[in-house]
Write a structure and sequence with these properties.
The complex is a heterodimer of chains A (about 375) and B (about 110).
Chain A lengths: L25 E2 L9 E4 L17 E3 L12 E6 L5 E4 H6 L3 E8 L15 H5 L2 E10 H8 L7 E6 L6 E5 H4 L4 E6 L2 E2 L9 E3 L12 E7 L14 E2 L5 E2 L8 E6 L10 E10 L5 E7 L7 E2 L1 E2 L9 E9 L4 E9 L8 H8 L12 E4 L5 E3 L2
Chain B lengths: L3 H25 L5 E2 L2 H7 L17 H11 L1 H4 L30
Classes of the chains: A mainly beta (about 375), B mainly alpha (about 110).
Chain lengths: ~375, ~110
């Protein structure tokens, strides 16, 4: 380059290079409306464990509201000693903490129906990972004084859907956060600006965005999103309810669906693993369709309820190969195969699919999803 | 008479008590937020539980309900709740244990 480059502040808020314009979210499916819909994180093109704020997956039930933080309030009431209303300034004055947690929609992945041309964005793009900053919900609850008979909380959003979910008090008093920032800046509107719940390791839906109300009660509130939706149908026709924890899961992001290996030789197999139960302890890789397995290298930091990056050097001999990854967590849980899951839960659960993902590498180097 | 050691221990215990009290006060209240009045709570408290708790007072008939449905719901859920473009609301009885479950309020 012999010419002067672009000046400073072009633009004041930096954006990716125009050469990266294809690294964007995409709609998960054709839906009746564009407001009750979801978008997928482009996992294949990301590095490390942090999801850039503009690429965090989206799931909205009534669109993204535009909320003035000066007008926003959080009310905490029900079975409490002192029902209180907090402004955003009140919230910001609480003792704060920052934690890196993954967030995953319980609908991430598919029990069946994904095509051969599916990419990692299609198969696993409803997971993202950010550093979240806010106040412990337990600190807020100490302020109102929880009555001993309170067993559940209701969290309600200020969106058009008034999205609401019930959460057991034990989890509310454990590591649950009320957050106002992600990756160093205030929440993005599509992530709940100005205030959201962040329930580590639990299905994303319960991390209620645009949080405006928390009510304490003796029993779960049985909202639409925990009866008609977000329940898991099993073969006898009954449904599992309150299946909160996102169990151990992993996906190889390179090489992965839609990529093309040019030559045989050295490749780094790399991907992401996570568990809602705690830390990932091991990720095994198979290059022969699950016949044999080798442990991969886990990149530090290995944090609980957080994405963990794994890597394994690999020499492709030019023959067809099938890549799989299998995550284990500190509870001893081993990520199951599709068959192991389907044998127990059938194929109609819709939510909470965490089976092992396989990518087929053809002789010409094309990488496709194993259906 | 207390020995120096006893005084020291008593002093440490007192200091611990003061510290514990300070922590308890911290855990109880930071003085944040303002009291939600009954009127404010009534304005925000919109949840309705499975047993009907939380429903506003009132009454209605099927005929009145049909008018409300046609005006507010039918455009997305169909004239008879058959769905398209939004979720189907009726039917599907006996399908939940099948390979093609139809999830509705009724099924």
């Amino acid at each position: 380059m012999k010419e002067q480059g672009a000046p400073i502040l072009s633009p004041p808020y930096g954006v990716p290079s125009p050469f990266e314009k294809y690294v964007v979210r995409k709609a998960r499916a054709a839906t009746a409306t564009q407001t009750a819909a979801s978008t997928l994180t482009p996992l294949r093109d990301l590095h490390g464990i942090i999801t850039p704020n503009g690429l965090h997956y989206e799931r909205h039930h009534g669109g993204v509201p535009a909320i003035d933080p000066d007008q926003h309030r959080l009310m905490v009431h029900g079975l409490v000693e002192r029902p209180l209303i907090f402004t955003m300034n009140d919230i910001a004055r609480f003792p704060s903490e920052s934690r890196i947690y993954f967030l995953e929609c319980s609908g991430n992945g598919a029990w069946s129906g994904l095509k051969e041309n599916a990419t990692a964005q299609d198969t696993h793009g409803l997971v993202s990972c950010c550093e979240w900053t806010g106040v412990r919900l337990s600190t807020v609850l100490a302020e109102v004084g929880v009555k001993p008979q309170a067993r559940w909380i209701l969290a309600e959003g200020a969106d058009a859907a008034a999205m609401s979910r019930s959460l057991p008090i034990a989890k509310a008093l454990d590591d649950t956060l009320v957050v106002y920032a992600q990756n160093g800046e205030r929440l993005r509107p599509e992530q709940g600006y100005p205030l959201r719940l962040l329930v580590p390791g639990y299905e994303g839906n319960i991390s209620v965005k645009w949080l405006r109300r928390v009510k304490l009660g003796e029993e779960p509130f049985q909202t639409r999103e925990e009866t008609s939706k977000y329940t898991d149908l099993v073969p006898d026709g009954s449904a599992r309810q309150f299946t909160f924890v996102m169990e151990a899961k992993s996906v190889i992001t390179s090489p992965s669906g839609g990529q093309q290996l040019r030559d045989k030789g050295y490749y780094e197999i790399s991907g992401l693993a996570w568990s809602g139960r705690g830390r990932v302890t091991r990720v095994d890789i198979s290059t022969d369709g699950g016949e044999s397995w080798s442990p991969s290298h886990l990149q530090e930091p290995i944090l609980p309820k957080c994405l963990t990056r794994f890597r394994l050097p690999w020499n492709w001999d030019g023959a067809p190969a099938q890549l799989q990854s299998r995550a284990l967590d500190e509870s001893g849980y081993v990520q199951p195969t599709h068959k192991q899951l389907a044998d127990v839960r059938g194929l109609q659960s819709y939510y909470h699919y965490n089976g092992i993902q396989a990518w087929q590498i053809a002789q010409d180097g094309a990488v496709t999803n194993v259906v | 008479m207390w020995s120096d050691r006893q005084v020291l221990i008593a002093g440490m215990a007192a200091a611990f008590l003061i510290n514990a009290t300070a922590n308890a006060a911290h855990a109880q209240s930071l003085g944040s937020g303002h009291t939600a009045t009954p009127a404010e709570i009534a304005g925000w408290d919109i949840d309705v539980r499975a047993d009907g708790q939380g429903l506003p007072p009132g009454h209605g008939s099927v005929r009145e309900g049909e008018k409300v449905y046609v005006e507010n719901c039918a455009a997305c859920h169909g004239d008879k709740g058959e769905g398209k473009p939004a979720d189907r609301l009726v039917g599907g009885f006996g399908t939940l244990a099948s390979a093609h479950p139809v999830r509705t309020v009724g099924s």
